[in-house]
Design a protein that fits this description.
- With about 300 residues, the protein is α+β, with helices and mostly antiparallel strands.
- The protein has two domains: about 200 residues, Up-down Bundle (Alpha-lytic protease prodomain-like), CATH 1.20.1510.10; about 80 residues, Alpha-Beta Plaits (2-Layer Sandwich), CATH 3.30.70.
- The protein has a four-stranded mixed sheet.
- Helix 3 packs parallel to helix 7.
- The radius of gyration is 25 Å and the shape is elongated.
- InterPro entries: Cation_efflux, Cation_efflux_CTD, Cation_efflux_CTD_sf, Cation_efflux_TM, Cation_efflux_TMD_sf, CDF/SLC30A.
């Protein structure tokens, strides 16, 4: 028999922090405009690269906001988990956008190494400092929310990369002002491209884990098994599955073998309450499904998983 503890597919982790994302989006778009104008008038590739990176961040935050709205739509008979997985697809798009941007920046930087153009450092420095201040403000907005959602984490990592990129542009501007070494701008562009790739890979890896229904980070199946076996009346547990629908929505299912005498109406109800309380308190998993099996029936079960 099965028991579904939670039938609610409420607001997702990204949805809970929608206002933060909107604030970051506004800040980012404002700085993008300033940096693009500054790059055009200064001739700085690194400033243009930083603006391009921030524009990709703005696109990523927009995708995350749209995904949060889509994910909030109710479940149906055709989509029993609703559209919550849309957030994961948005995070995938974010990662791919970051990779494309980094490749384009790197390619253009390599092309400029042979003949770096003259850069007007005063405009370059002003736009870069403004970008750094804005990125710092965005980081503070997202700091407490980035542990709860892949999309918020993606936005946080992108803004962090933007901050490092702005610092690289500031350093390049100062070097050019003091020494006249114009190639510093191109070097800063390459550094920005190289900073983007590891973050994109980290986000992509987390998204793939969710899509492949890997166990959530920090969750040990063996430890869960031990907790379930410690419940009075349980003799064995098998076919344990734990995965993530989207950020903040872990799901658990298992076949639990119990003593034959437990499977009366009251005994089964009490056992299910204990199992659900155990999973919820120790592993922060609210959506649990248990199939209770009498010990005498265990020989008929074909185990699909440990």
């Amino acid at each position: 028999m099965g028991h579904d503890h939670s039938h609610s597919h409420g607001i997702t982790a990204t949805g809970r922090h929608r206002k933060r994302l909107v604030a970051v989006l506004g800040i980012t778009l404002g700085v993008v405009v300033i940096q693009i104008v500054g790059a055009v008038f200064s001739g700085s590739l690194s400033l243009l690269a930083d603006a391009g990176h921030m524009l990709s961040d703005a696109a990523g935050v927009t995708i995350a906001l749209l995904a949060a709205w889509i994910a909030g739509r109710p479940a149906s008979d055709q989509r029993t988990y609703g559209y919550q997985r849309a957030e994961v697809l948005a995070a995938l798009a974010n990662a791919l956008i970051l990779i494309v941007i980094s490749v384009v920046i790197f390619t253009e930087a390599i092309r400029r190494f042979g003949a770096p153009p003259e850069v007007h450092t005063d405009i370059m420095l002003f736009a870069a400092v403004l970008g750094a201040v804005a990125n710092l403000a965005s980081l503070l907005i997202l700091r407490t929310a980035q542990d709860e959602s892949l999309n918020v984490r993606g936005a946080y990592l992108e803004v962090l990369g933007d901050l490092l990129g702005s610092v690289a542009v500031i350093i390049a501007a100062v070097v050019i002002m003091l020494t006249g070494f114009q190639t510093a701008d191109t070097i800063a562009s390459v550094l920005i491209a190289l900073m983007i790739l590891p973050r994109a890979w980290s986000l992509l890896r987390d998204v793939v884990d969710v899509l492949l229904e890997a166990s959530p980070k920090g969750v040990e199946v063996q430890m869960i098994r031990e907790h379930i076996l410690s419940v009075a009346g349980v003799t064995d547990v098998h076919d344990i599955h734990i995965w993530t629908i989207t950020s903040g929505v872990p799901v658990f299912s298992a076949h639990v073998v119990v003593e034959d005498g437990v499977l009366n109406a009251r005994g089964a109800d009490q056992l299910l309450d204990k199992l659900i309380t155990c999973l919820g308190s120790h592993f922060d998993t609210d959506h649990c499904t248990f199939q209770l099996e009498p010990a005498s029936h265990s020989d008929h079960e074909a185990h699909q998983h440990a």
